[in-house]
User: Which sequence fits this backbone?
């Protein structure tokens, strides 16, 4: 039996520090639409999760944590009680707080068991499993009426659960995404869900760091674990040393056959003789063990408006958004090291579109030199360091290297894909935005979008905020609203130094 799935709105991630990530579950037509989006405790108000994978916990440096901010009766996302959760929150004995594990390096939310409580899926890619340093784990922490507490259901996964023996340096859980049941629902065993896990530093067939992804799906109450790499039959690209297949991952409906597909970022893929140009692999039907093949897309592929260049790292971030019916989809892949004219590392975001009745294909490419898009491409802007798609195909693009009034103060650009000329940019110097723009703060190091019950918000991390040494998150309600911010204070001790930062 194949059951259609609905996609969890992905968002967040990118290049080295700690991760702000707050993707929200998108309600389905049935089964999982018993609650509101992003509601961990089922009280009808939208919650948010912000990870800080460099935080110290229980005396363990860089063990990592996730701060959960619950919604309340003011109907604003995440403006109620805040609390911290960590690797040992929950009842799985494999949930261990460990020095250097970086729990929260990747993070996504979805109501996996269709019970009206949104669940957390958390990666800790530098967790040391027995006999394998930095082999990594992924934890599923299930929501309940009490929120996340010590007795919450918890499920910890490692590579061994997918038929592959854990190995030193795999970094299982470097990236994650999830989809939830759109069909018949069920508690506690859902009819269908999916989790895709990036393992980009896995060695395959003698190729060091060629990478892999692990896919866990549920079918009629049972679980199926599938391991996919570039040697899997039908997957395009071909394994090479250092490809980093699985550096980023995203689920989506990319055709009309009612099965869930995936995009896998391969940012260090060589395109012919062009080193580290990068690619994105589209996997068709990753539900269960029925993979229908894959297609490698590069900037030299037909219909892609740009061209592959050395060190572009196309595919460093991928994200997708699918309508509740699955009829329409959008996806993005970023190349933050793309040169735009003479501007080195200015950055680019490639759009993909699946119209109703069609299949996913390349659309326009966005940079700060695109007609109608605000700003000007400049050297080391890193436009697209993180990208998230949300309601109405709004795209949030992080530009942490943007020079405003100060060098590397950063920027977030909100681009409605229906009309890119309606884009809006924010820095910490923008009117109404809390804080002050300072050099090196890198606003937009990580971005996210929450499709809330009563409010939609875009989020931008400022991990190196000068006034707040532990970082902060700026919150931008859209299409109109008063910006606000969140700090890692008032939620416990042992704060890290990069709240609102990035993971990969």
Assistant:
């Amino acid at each position: 039996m194949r059951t259609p799935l609905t996609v969890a709105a992905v968002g967040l991630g990118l290049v080295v520090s700690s991760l702000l990530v707050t993707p929200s579950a998108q309600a389905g037509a049935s089964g999982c639409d018993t609650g509101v989006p992003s509601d961990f405790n089922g009280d009808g108000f939208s919650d948010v999760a912000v990870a800080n994978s460099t935080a110290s916990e229980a005396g363990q440096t860089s063990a990592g944590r996730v701060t959960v901010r619950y919604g309340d009766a003011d109907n604003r996302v995440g403006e109620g009680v805040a609390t911290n959760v960590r690797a040992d929150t929950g009842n799985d004995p494999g949930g261990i707080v460990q020095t250097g594990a970086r729990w929260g390096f990747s993070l996504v939310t979805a109501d996996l068991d269709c019970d009206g409580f949104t669940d957390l899926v958390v990666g800790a890619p530098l967790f040391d499993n027995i006999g394998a340093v930095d082999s990594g784990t992924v934890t599923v922490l299930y929501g309940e009426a009490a929120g996340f507490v010590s007795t919450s259901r918890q499920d910890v996964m490692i590579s061994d659960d997918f038929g592959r023996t854990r190995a030193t340096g795999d970094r299982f859980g470097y990236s994650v995404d999830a989809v939830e049941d759109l069909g018949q629902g069920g508690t506690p065993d859902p009819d269908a869900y999916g989790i895709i896990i990036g393992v980009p530093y896995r060695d395959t067939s003698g190729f060091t760091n060629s990478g892999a992804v692990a896919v866990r799906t549920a079918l009629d109450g049972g679980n199926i674990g599938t391991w996919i790499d570039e040697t899997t039959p039908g997957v395009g690209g071909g394994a090479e040393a250092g490809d980093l297949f699985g550096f980023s991952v995203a689920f989506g409906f990319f055709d009309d056959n009612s099965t869930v597909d995936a995009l896998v970022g391969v940012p260090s893929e060589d395109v012919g003789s062009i080193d580290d140009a990068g690619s994105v692999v589209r996997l068709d039907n990753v539900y269960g063990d029925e993979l229908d093949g894959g297609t490698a897309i590069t900037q030299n592929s037909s219909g892609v408006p740009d061209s592959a260049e050395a060190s572009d790292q196309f595919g460093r971030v991928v994200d997708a958004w699918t309508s509740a019916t699955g009829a329409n989809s959008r996806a993005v892949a970023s190349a933050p090291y793309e040169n735009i004219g003479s501007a080195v590392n200015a950055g680019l975001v490639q759009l993909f579109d699946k119209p109703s009745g069609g299949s996913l294909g390349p659309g326009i490419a966005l940079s700060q030199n695109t007609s109608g898009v605000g700003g000007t491409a400049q050297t080391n802007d890193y436009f697209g360091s993180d990208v998230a798609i949300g309601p109405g195909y709004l795209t949030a693009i992080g530009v942490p290297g943007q020079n405003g009034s100060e060098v590397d103060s950063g920027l977030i650009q909100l681009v409605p894909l229906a009309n890119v000329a309606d884009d809006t940019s924010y820095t910490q110097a923008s009117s109404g935005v809390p804080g002050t723009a300072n050099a090196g703060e890198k606003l937009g190091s990580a971005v996210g979008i929450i499709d809330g019950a009563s409010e939609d918000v875009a989020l931008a991390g400022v991990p190196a905020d000068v006034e707040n040494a532990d970082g902060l998150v700026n919150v931008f309600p859209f299409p109109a609203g008063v910006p606000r911010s969140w700090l890692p204070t008032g939620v416990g001790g042992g704060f890290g130094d990069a709240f609102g930062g990035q993971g990969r």
In short: The first strand starts at residue 5 and ends at 7. The CA atoms of residues 1 and 10 lie 26 Å apart. The chain has no helices and 28 strands.
